[in-house]
Amino acid sequence: MSINDVIQCLEEMNLLYAAMLDLACRKKEVLIANRVEDLNQIVHKENLLVRQLNELEGKRTEAVNAFLVQKCYRPNPKISVSDLIVLLFKAEDKARLQQAQQTLSHTLSRLKEANELNQQLIRQSLAFIEYSMDLVLGPPEDDVVYHNPSAAQQGYKRTGMFDSRA
């Protein structure tokens, strides 16, 4: 195998991560609009892409190891693309591999930003749901924890509009 196989794997990975980025942007819109069914479909598509990425990562590792063996080096699954660039002699191959690495790195950083934004949206949504539940039910009780029966207070603790114990 040649370095072209490694570059091809990196380019294919970039395409899959770009698809993940597109899904992350669509997920943001779905989260804002509170469309749960659409969110489930997006998560399903993301899971399929993650499986494909795992398979492609295995192919990339095989391609890197085959390249190392071809160049009389020991296979190393933890070798980085930067280390591979150092091992190359042709300037054209170095430039192509470096370009593939930079493109993939840029796509991954954009995906990370989109996922962090989606995570913030989910946290805000959960905080709003918790706030709404507290308004309706009152503050949460500590009934789950055992207390000394003689120290127990008489009466109801939750003062919300809805009594869930009824």
Could you please describe the fold and organization of this structure?
The protein is mostly helical. The chain has a single domain (3-137), classed as Methane Monooxygenase Hydroxylase, Chain G, domain 1 (Up-down Bundle). The chain is built from four helices and no strands.
Gap from first CA to last CA: 70 Å
Number of strands: 0
Known CATH architecture = Up-down Bundle
Order of helices and strands: HHHH
| Percentage of residues assigned to helices | over 70%
List the helices and strands and how they pair.
Elements: H1 3-33, H2 36-70, H3 81-87, H4 91-137
Helix pairs in contact: 1-2, 1-4, 3-4
Task: Offer a few descriptive terms.
166 residues, mainly alpha, Methane Monooxygenase Hydroxylase, Chain G, domain 1, 4 helices, 72% helix, 0% strand, elongated
Question: Can you describe this structure in just a few lines?
Answer:
The protein is mostly helical and 166 residues long.
